[in-house]
Design brief:
The complex is a heterodimer of chains A (about 375) and B (about 240).
Chain A: H1 3-19, H2 21-41, E1 49-55, H3 61-67, E2 74-79, H4 82-90, E3 96-100, E4 116-122, H5 126-143, E5 152-159, H6 166-196, H7 199-204, H8 210-240, H9 248-270, H10 276-280, H11 282-293, H12 308-311, H13 315-328, H14 336-363
Parallel strand pairs in A: 1-2, 1-3, 4-5
Antiparallel strand pairs in A: 3-4
Helix pairs in contact in A: 2-11, 3-5, 6-8, 6-9, 6-13, 8-9, 8-14, 9-13, 9-14, 13-14
Chain B: E1 7-16, E2 19-29, E3 34-38, H1 45-52, E4 60-65, E5 68-69, E6 79-82, H2 94-104, H3 109-122, H4 138-150, E7 156-160, H5 168-183, E8 187-192, E9 203-208, E10 211-216, H6 218-225, H7 230-243
Parallel strand pairs in B: 3-8, 3-9, 6-7, 7-8
Antiparallel strand pairs in B: 1-2, 1-4, 4-5, 9-10
Helix pairs in contact in B: 2-3, 2-4, 3-4, 6-7
Classes of the chains: A alpha/beta (about 375), B alpha/beta (about 240).
């Protein structure tokens, strides 16, 4: 081994970085971004969970208990009608209803056996369910410390159940995440590769239109994305017995819409990448925001308020939300939440495909 | 077959930033000829072809191809283009590559099948029909790329350095084939930086730093420059241009 030759290789490699400022910037900025985003989101506690309280208690104890609900975990609103409040949870606009009956104070132990609080829950998100019940139990503990009261939190699940596990709640998001990675990255790399080999130019010399190229590519990768979704979803069902209460066909349709938009995005990104090395750098750029800001692993309620607007910019937020509602809540396309998500995904598809066609033309 | 030249260029200029690739090129390529566009690397040959295909816009000047002003969208299916880059999918077989380009210019599946066999014989890689392009040698990949350009029997062939990396025997066979095409009324535009190859052409033009130095038959060029061969003829022309 000759040091001179070793150093020649070292020097050449560093020179390559010097000529590729983008890659150099990436090496420095990426870890910084990771630390910041991870730091702000991970370990983030759930907060501002919209909870509706219907307090019919004739006595003072329910009010006292509510005073002991502290912290910002729950965003409590007072409602007067249990049925109306419950409808809010059914519509997905609130996570829980806490209802105190008229005789709550009167029935308090030790005079009586039980004092029941009814908790209406959207159990499709276990972290939120845990946060709601945990906060209530803490308040009970504080209010009636030492009373040893056998309080019953009567849980009424609108969606999901006590048995909904963490894995059930993140399975839809993980499927969408897998689709995102494959479709975006494949399309970035494929277009960069075709441009590099002069093939893109050759294709456009045959009267092929950029829009035709973009749609053709999107269609092919969408087929792959659907096959991949079937594998991931199948594995989730068979190996982990993941709960699915909704329409699987609708779930696939949502994944397809999402996959098509991702390809448009990938093709647009390809015009910002000179070579495959630069194309690969888009992976973490897509992966981290999607992993951390979109409610796939933690609910949006766990993302700090300052970062929350970013969540609504990342398309995976809508795909994951739609899949969550379809698979865990059993919603259909007629439900407002799903319809809105689908509409946003359609806009995403239209914008990115249009952009892709423009960008591809410029690259040939 | 429509009348009029296959390509007409008038005062074509193209600048890439400060670099002037073409500085006012005017020429006509009649139908049914083999036309050699010669010049050293960087002379503007590829830029000229890309303008003809509508892949890049001239900074100024006009051109028409097969009677249509550039970009010649309607005429593109009648043009066969072989770029300097290999422009074949390495992860497809030779036949799959050809089928793609055949479909893009609107050929029927049957015709594609039949023509694939024919053109692969012409470029002498018939036995590699179902091989992945990545397993072919560099010269074979060029031949596959040429086969893709020939597939739809186009009226106008634009071949950018088709003979680079092709062995002399096959190169000679190519020229015979190109002359055969022109006999059938096809027009072939070939760029090359091998000056001597121009003797195979009906007409030759020399581009030098974006300017057209001469455009004439090979014999006439030799006569005008009083040179024994085209290599010397072009050297004389370049020297004169540099002196001017």
């Amino acid at each position: 081994m000759t040091m001179r030759r070793v150093l020649a290789v070292t020097r050449k490699t560093l020179s390559q970085f010097r000529h590729d400022r983008r890659t150099l910037g990436f090496v420095v900025m990426m870890p910084l971004l990771m630390v910041v985003v991870f730091g702000y989101t991970f370990g983030g506690e759930v907060h501002d969970v919209r909870t509706l309280v219907v307090n019919d208690d004739a006595g003072p104890m329910a009010g006292r208990l509510l005073e002991n609900v502290t912290g910002d975990t729950l965003a409590i609103e007072s409602w007067t009608d249990v049925a109306a409040a419950r409808a809010e949870v059914v519509a997905g606009r609130a996570w829980a209803v806490v209802a105190f009956p008229e005789n709550f104070t009167a029935n308090l132990p030790p005079g009586n056996d039980t004092a029941a609080i009814t908790v209406v829950l959207d159990g499709s998100s276990p972290p939120i369910r845990a946060a709601v019940l945990g906060t209530l139990r803490a308040a009970l503990e504080k209010t009636f410390a030492g009373a040893g009261a056998p309080f019953a939190l009567e849980q009424d699940y609108v969606y999901g159940s006590e048995d909904t596990r963490f894995i059930d709640s993140f399975a839809p998001g993980v499927v969408a995440l897998a689709v995102l990675m494959v479709t975006t990255i494949l399309s970035v790399i494929m277009v960069v590769r075709e441009r590099g080999g002069g093939i893109l130019e050759r294709l456009f010399s045959t009267s092929l239109r950029p829009s035709e190229f973009v749609f053709g590519l999107a269609l092919a990768l969408a087929v792959i994305a659907v096959a991949q979704s079937a594998v991931v979803l199948g594995a989730a069902l068979l190996l982990f017995n993941v709960q699915v209460v909704g329409n699987i066909a609708l779930a696939f349709a949502i994944l397809l819409l999402f996959a098509i938009g991702n390809q448009g995005l990938g093709i647009m990104m390809s015009s910002a990448a000179k070579n495959e090395l630069q194309a690969i750098q888009f992976v973490p750029l897509i992966l981290f925001p999607s992993l951390l800001l979109t409610g796939v692993f933690f609910p949006l309620e766990a993302i700090p308020g300052g970062l929350r607007p970013l969540s609504y910019v990342v398309p995976l937020t809508y795909a994951a939300d739609a899949l969550h509602s379809v698979m865990l809540r059993g919603w259909g396309i007629g439900d407002f939440g799903v319809a809105l998500d689908v509409l946003i995904l359609l806009v995403y598809d239209a914008l990115t495909l249009l952009g892709a066609a423009v960008f591809v033309r410029r690259q040939a | 077959m429509p009348k009029g030249p296959a390509v007409i260029a008038k005062e074509l200029k193209k600048a890439f930033g400060d670099v002037e690739a073409l500085r006012g090129v005017s020429l006509e390529i009649p139908r049914g000829v083999t036309f050699g566009l010669l010049g050293p690397n960087g002379a503007g040959k590829t830029t000229f072809i890309r303008i003809c295909l509508g892949l890049t816009r001239p900074t100024s000047g006009t051109a028409s191809v097969l009677g249509e002003d550039i970009p010649p969208r309607a005429m593109l299916p009648k043009i066969g283009y072989m770029p300097q880059d290999l422009a074949v999918y390495l992860d497809l077989t030779v036949a799959e590559n050809l089928a793609l380009f055949g479909r893009l210019v609107g050929m029927e599946e049957e015709a594609i099948e039949k023509r694939t066999d024919e053109v692969l014989k012409i470029v002498d890689i018939a036995e590699r029909r179902d091989s992945l392009a990545s397993t072919l040698s560099g010269g074979m990949r060029r031949r596959a790329s040429l086969a893709a350009a020939l597939l739809h029997d186009p009226d106008l062939l634009l071949l950018d350095e088709p003979t680079v990396g092709v062995d002399p025997e096959l190169r000679a066979a190519f020229w015979v084939y190109f002359q055969d095409l022109t006999k059938r009324g096809r027009t072939v535009l070939i760029t090359t930086h091998y000056m001597e190859e121009a003797s195979n052409c009906d007409l030759a033009a020399l581009l030098h730093r974006g300017r057209l130095l001469i455009c004439d038959g090979p014999a006439a060029i030799k006569e005008k420059t009083r040179a024994e061969n085209l290599d010397d003829a072009f050297l004389t022309l370049v020297r004169e241009a540099n002196a001017a």
